[in-house]
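Continuing the series of single-chain predictions for the mutant panel. This is the parent chain; the variants come on the following pages.
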Amino acid sequence: MYIVGILLLLGPLITVHELGHYLVGRWFGVKADIFSIGFGKELFGWSDKRGTRWRIAAIPLGGYVQFHGDMNPASIPNQEALKGFGARERDESFQCKPLWQRALIVFAGPATNLLLTIGIFATFFAVVGRPVPIDPEDSTTVSRFAENSAAQEAGVEVGDRILAIDGNPIVEFRDISDKVMLYPDKQIVLEVERDGERLSIPMTIGASVEQDQFGNEARVGRLGFYSGEFTFVSLTIPQAVGQAMNASWDLTKMMATGVGQILTGDRSIKELGGPVKIAKYSGEQLSLGLAAFVNFAALISLNLAFINLLPIPALDGGHLAFYAAEAVRRKPVSPRGMELAYRTGVAIVLMLMVVVTVNDLVSLPIFGS
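Parent structure:
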């Protein structure tokens, strides 16, 4: 199931990402020399009438579109080839296009992954519905406590209505999760309404190591109380799209927070996962049925968009950073500077791949974890 899951997951997501680059490139008249799903040796492929080589490669952990005028899949300009291009070849070359067109072509890959995520979430909201409180006034009201509740120990009582956390207003129960889940052991001030009086309660968010049905563990923050009962309400298409955009934005903020916590040492680098863990999770979600697998695919698609927009050379975000520098400087970064930056970027990506792969392998049951 792991192998089937990751192939069904990454294959379509990578294809969608690269199609974003390819289609916007075609829109601006750029010729694509290679469209590859995977890296390394070509397993099979074909060439179309426009001269694009469509290929499936041996290492299915990514993909690329190599546009005309690129030296390699990282889109480093082939300066020698560009000097010998005639007018038609320059017109078909990615590197000879205006800055704004190059930026849009690069941004199109992550944007396509983001649109796919929003589309999947919107479909779920429209078909399955969105959880809403049966009584809206109970959405942020404490109805009962969990065992070993951090909120109860701090002095929160049943019937208290949560107004704010560290001064940030709470409108619905989801706001509480957003401000708590990623912050175990953080000291906060909880503002509640009790019998018409506003109270400030200092407390420490509880830390809980939770397991899913497959034994996967996650350390999360919990206050330890429940609100009123919820029901699912189907949304119209415009409502569903709006909620899907909000959900995608909330998840993106959580990803950024998680990365920041790892960089500052608040979270262990062991929490990072790579291809092996993705394969494990994809197989597990596939075993739960199509709906669970598609929802997981939406999360990974959003992850791909987020990671690719990080300002690391060799990723889409690195290209966009160079274009931003070019816009400010009014001239491109020197070929030598770009090559050094891309080599550094590739080294960083490879180093991260080694770290996350070691994390993945250590976490597998065969190693006793």
